[in-house]
Design goal:
Helix content: 25-40%
Shape: elongated
Number of helices: 4
Oligomer: single chain
Order of helices and strands: EHHEEHEH
Radius of gyration: 17 Å
Strand order of the largest sheet: 2-3-1-4
Largest sheet: 4 strands, antiparallel
């Protein structure tokens, strides 16, 4: 499984913003109900990080009417060994 960051922008319109937040909070999805929001800072997006088998599975968790605007980003962590391997390959 890979880890994905899901970013979902939504309208700055106060009513629409509240409706999207309400939809997430009242959903049956633990993941959606615990999204992080930037609205109070003027950034009308929600974010969450979770493990999925693939990008399509990650997108499926997003409510259908917001999928067209969602950004699904596979996250990677790097170790010191990973960086050393890249350096070795670049030397040859």
């Amino acid at each position: 499984m890979a880890t994905y960051l899901i970013e979902i922008p939504h309208s700055e319109n106060t009513f629409e913003c509240k409706q999207v937040i309400k939809l997430f909070v009242e959903s049956d999805s633990h993941l959606l109900a615990n999204a992080h929001w930037g609205c109070k800072a003027g950034v009308h997006k929600s974010w969450f990080i979770s493990d999925f088998d693939n990008k399509e599975e990650a997108l499926h968790i997003v409510p259908p009417f917001l999928r067209h605007a969602a950004n699904i980003i596979e996250l990677t962590t790097f170790t010191k060994t990973d960086i050393e391997e890249v350096d070795k390959k670049n030397r040859h």
